[in-house]
Amino acid sequence: MSDVQHLTGATDRLRPHVCQGCAWWQQDPRAREVDKARWIEEFEERFGSWGKLYLDGERHVGSLQYGPAQAFPRSASLPAGPPSDDAMLVTCAYLSDPSSPWALQSLFLACLGE
């Protein structure tokens, strides 16, 4: 059974290991390393979930990380310039099952719906 769920600290364990440990967008390139667990906690307190998961049962099909620009310090140093203060960013889209590219479309639509 396919299911779209919120990406939170509780559901992060359902993503591939490489995604669970990645904090590239959460890291300010001019600062020390970020504590991703703390970032997750602070993000959820301020904004709620920070993405969407597409699951087939317990199997990860795809995930999408997104949120307000100010929650992702790396966005301030983008080559095109920092995003506006009211911008929502999709910072990462990961597809585990290449035979299911429609899963990312479903995730984008779910995010737009919020």
Summarize the structure.
The protein has helices spanning 17-20, 36-46, 102-113; strands at residues 2-6, 51-56, 59-68, 88-95. It has a single domain, classed as Aminopeptidase. Strand 2 and strand 3 (59-68) form a beta hairpin.
List its salient traits:
4 strands, single chain, Aminopeptidase, alpha+beta, 114 residues
Number of domains: 1
Structural class: alpha+beta
| Corresponding CATH architecture | 3-Layer(aba) Sandwich
Unreliable parts: none
Beta-strand segment tally: 4
- The CATH class assignment is Alpha Beta
Overall pLDDT: 94
Main β-sheet: number of strands, strand sense, barrel status? Answer: 4 strands, antiparallel
Helix content range: 10-25%
Number of helices: 3
- Beta content: 25-35%
Strand order of the largest sheet: 1-2-3-4
Verbal overview:
The chain has about 110 residues and is of the alpha+beta class. It has a single domain, classed as 3-Layer(aba) Sandwich (Aminopeptidase). It has helices at about 15-20, 35-45, 100-114, and strands spanning about 1-5, 50-55, 60-70, 90-95. Strands 1-2-3-4 form a four-stranded antiparallel β-sheet, with helices on one face. A hairpin with a 2-residue loop joins β2 (about 50-55) and β3 (about 60-70). The protein starts with a strand and ends with a helix.
Helix/strand layout:
Elements: E1 2-6, H1 17-20, H2 36-46, E2 51-56, E3 59-68, E4 88-95, H3 102-113
Antiparallel strand pairs: 1-2, 2-3, 3-4
